[in-house]
């Protein structure tokens, strides 16, 4: 059996200009980055094209294949003669070299060349990292230069695109050894940087500059906010991002056009690709397949309550991806026997799928199809049980075999989705803009997560007062919590209910235009696993890479 990277090496790719032609792009619309990737001119007019959101049940250590299913669905729609474009996020180097490995899909549903996508791509993440750290340098320089802004408490952190737990807490010298002044500081991963969020929520270079200008970076000695505009470097930050704001054109191994742009994580950020890329895809194709990170309670909630609310978008249909072994894992099946038929565990764990169906269909009011990503060890009895369960909940379930068969293996799903797209569509938001921050968090935690109560710890309570005093209660909330459970406790599997949800801290993101609620044991700088994927990667004397999957 071929590995993912071997499959992409065998694929015969088209020149990226040919992929652009499928979307009606002209030569002047494309800036080539070699043969197989390009930056393109954004297209942001209103569109009547259909937007399909792909989300999933809670992730497990075994992988559910959300990106693989997104690619397979787009390839299947392409096979059915539809003008389709994917709109996905860029991978972060942290997970690529950590536990996840590559993020280009898998099997015969992949983006290619996968090395290009997973390793640096067009440099967007590096630009975001540099832009973020320019702001840090300007803050420390201001301190060194006699502190004219009277900076007292610094909110802004440096970032880098790697899982490096040692950088969570560091000591820095504010003005060099001569000053003898040190302070506690730390790094976030680039995907959690506010610059990443802003890039994905901006609609133009002018909008990007305005949002960057509005980033709150510190408080002065009187407790008043200090913004990037006060540092005088908003234009310089935008200069670093002038190319990064443009969407990247790529392709699947079946030559389906794909826009890959932005990469915020859904457990610590809002988990969606850029508004610019999504709207551009909607302008260039009749059907757009996009995804939101992790489970529906994280990525899909933020896609709707943050991205759709800000951009005036709505999904016309939603695909909920799951697997038999994911559901058995949520039913406390033995990990060592997760591929063995186990109807008891499946019956217990299927409540996890039910919770996500309820959220998407009943709470958000969306047209829904369940996609069961099939593996070779899945048995008919288990598949039929899931299908019958979905039918009882009023949704269709498609068996997806696109990992092994490419677009052909996603045709059943594509046909189900096309039927859902014929229905009227609308979206329900979980909270109102007029709700205060405490109410917004409580509504998400109780209505979507299933909590009985929300506990705001002392630091979070003090931040609520600060947010209110600054007049920021109108902002949406971006909840940072574990992706492995509906709750804030990664060990509460299945459909957790009746728990207390704890909010430890609140971070004000005036540039991105939301408030981050830090909950449970979530870290904004992840660490590497006991055996990182980096240990299995190899490169030979000819530069051929293996183990990147």
Automatic annotation (TrEMBL):
PROSITE patterns: FTHFS_1. The gene is fhs. It catalyses: (6S)-5,6,7,8-tetrahydrofolate + formate + ATP = (6R)-10-formyltetrahydrofolate + ADP + phosphate. Its EC number is 6.3.4.3. Keywords: ATP-binding, Ligase, Nucleotide-binding, One-carbon metabolism. This is Formate--tetrahydrofolate ligase. GO terms for biological process: tetrahydrofolate interconversion. It is an enzyme of class 6 (ligase). Pathway: One-carbon metabolism; tetrahydrofolate interconversion. Gene3D superfamilies: Domain 2, N(10)-formyltetrahydrofolate synthetase (3.30.1510.10), Formyltetrahydrofolate synthetase, domain 3 (3.10.410.10), P-loop containing nucleotide triphosphate hydrolases (3.40.50.300). ATP binds at residues 60-67. It holds the Pfam family FTHFS. GO terms for molecular function: ATP binding; formate-tetrahydrofolate ligase activity. Belongs to the formate--tetrahydrofolate ligase family.
């Amino acid at each position: 059996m071929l590995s993912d990277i071997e499959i992409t090496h065998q694929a015969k790719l088209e020149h990226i200009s040919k992929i652009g032609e499928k979307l009606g792009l002209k030569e002047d619309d494309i800036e080539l980055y070699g043969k197989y990737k390009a930056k393109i001119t954004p297209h942001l007019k209103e569109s009547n094209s259909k937007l399909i959101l792909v989300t999933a049940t809670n992730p497990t250590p075994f992988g559910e294949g959300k990106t693989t299913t997104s690619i397979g669905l787009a390839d299947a729609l392409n096979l059915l003669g539809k003008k389709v474009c994917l709109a996905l996020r860029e991978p972060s180097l942290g997970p690529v070299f950590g536990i996840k490995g590559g993020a280009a899909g898998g099997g015969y549903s992949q983006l290619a060349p996968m090395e290009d996508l997973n390793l640096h791509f067009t440099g967007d993440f590096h630009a975001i990292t540099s832009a973020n750290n320019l702001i840090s340098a300007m803050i420390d320089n201001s301190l060194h230069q006699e502190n004219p802004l009277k900076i007292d408490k610094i909110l802004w952190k440096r970032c880098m695109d790697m899982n490096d737990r040692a950088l969570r807490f560091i000591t820095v010298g504010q003005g060099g050894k001569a000053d003898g002044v040190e302070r506690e500081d730390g790094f976030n991963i680039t995907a959690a940087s506010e610059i990443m969020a802003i890039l994905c929520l901006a609609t133009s270079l002018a909008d990007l500059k305005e949002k960057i200008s509005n980033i709150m970076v510190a408080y002065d000695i009187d407790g008043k906010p200090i913004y990037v505009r006060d540092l005088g470097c908003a234009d310089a930050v935008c200069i670093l991002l002038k190319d990064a704001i443009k969407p990247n054109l790529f392709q699947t191994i079946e030559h389906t056009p794909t826009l890959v742009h932005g990469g915020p994580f859904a457990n610590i950020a809002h988990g969606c690709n850029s508004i610019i890329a999504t709207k551009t895809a909607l302008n260039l194709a009749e059907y757009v397949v996009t995804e939101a990170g992790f489970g529906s309670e994280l990525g899909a909630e933020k896609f709707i309550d943050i991205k759709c609310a800000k951009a005036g978008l709505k999904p016309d249909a939603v695909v909920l991806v799951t697997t038999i072994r994911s559901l058995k894992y949520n039913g406390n099946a033995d990990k060592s026997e997760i591929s063995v038929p186990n109807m008891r565990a499946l019956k217990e764990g299927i409540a996890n799928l039910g919770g996500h169906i309820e959220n998407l269909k009943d709470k958000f009011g969306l047209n829904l199809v369940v996609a069961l990503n099939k593996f070779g060890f899945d048995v008919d009895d288990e598949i039929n049980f899931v299908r019958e369960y979905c039918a009882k909940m009023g949704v269709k379930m498609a068996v997806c075999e696109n990992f092994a068969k490419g677009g052909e293996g996603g045709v059943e799903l594509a046909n189900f989705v096309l039927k859902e797209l014929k229905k009227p569509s609308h979206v329900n938001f979980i909270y109102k803009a007029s709700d205060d921050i405490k109410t917004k968090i409580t509504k998400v935690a109780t209505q979507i997560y299933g909590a009985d109560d929300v506990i705001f710890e002392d630091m979070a309570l003090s931040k609520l007062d600060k947010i209110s005093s600054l007049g920021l209660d109108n902002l949406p909330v971006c909840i940072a919590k574990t992706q492995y459970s509906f709750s804030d406790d990664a060990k509460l599997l299945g459909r957790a209910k009746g728990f207390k949800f704890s909010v430890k801290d609140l971070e004000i993101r005036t540039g991105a235009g939301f408030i981050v609620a830090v909950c449970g044991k979530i870290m904004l700088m992840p660490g590497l696993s006991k055996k990182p994927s980096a240990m299995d990667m190899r490169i030979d004397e000819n530069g051929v890479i293996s183990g990147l999957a």
